[in-house]
Amino acid sequence: LLAQGNDVASVQQTLELMQKSGDAAMAEYLVRHSQSAEVRQQALATIQGSALLSEIALTDADTNIRLQALESISRLSTLKRIATEARGKNKRVARRARELVETRTLQQELPQLQQQLVAKIEQLASVQQPDQATLHQLSQQWEKLGGDAPAELQQRFNKALQQVGKAIEQWRRGKEQQDR
Fold first, then answer.
1. What is the DSSP string of 46-88?
2. pTM of the predicted model, to two decimals?
3. Half-sphere exposure in the Cβ direction for 1 (13 Å, CA)
4. Alpha-carbon distance 21 to 134, whole Å?
5. CB neighbours (10 Å) of residue 38?
6. Based on C-alpha coordinates, what's the Rg of the chain?
7. C-alpha neighbours within 13 Å on the C-beta side of residue 148
8. Number of C-alpha atoms within 13 angstroms, CB side, residue 34?
């Protein structure tokens, strides 16, 4: 009965009953069978299982519901699978799944990338004749990835950057003296 009504009164009753009961099985049933998009959206907000969310993201008739389900999925492997399976079926869902995969992958890999950049510039700082192109490249990468790095990493990067700058300046002076 709850899934059949689409008029304002029955939608409101269903939403109230769903909120009061907090029953996961009811929410799952309503997500799959309700005629009201509003009821399905509210029920979807309570769903936790990635299998059901994945199914909804791939098969629901309403694209907005599919996108809402997609946003609720946290497992990277599930998002990758949806991005692949949705290709050709629903471009918006496939595109958003790819965007979420990229964003979450970067979030997971960001600390490691930041560590690698600091290690690279520290290595560059230990060289007598540092390459300016490499310095420029590392600085650009740090601007993109290092903004929210821990303070300790930022300090290490800045210290190494200063050391590289001094080494380049010393090399230039030495070169100028040789040229005279």
1. T---HHHHHHHHHH-S-HHHHHHHHHH---HHHHHHHHHHHTT
2. 0.62
3. 6
4. 61
5. 14
6. 27
7. 5
8. 28
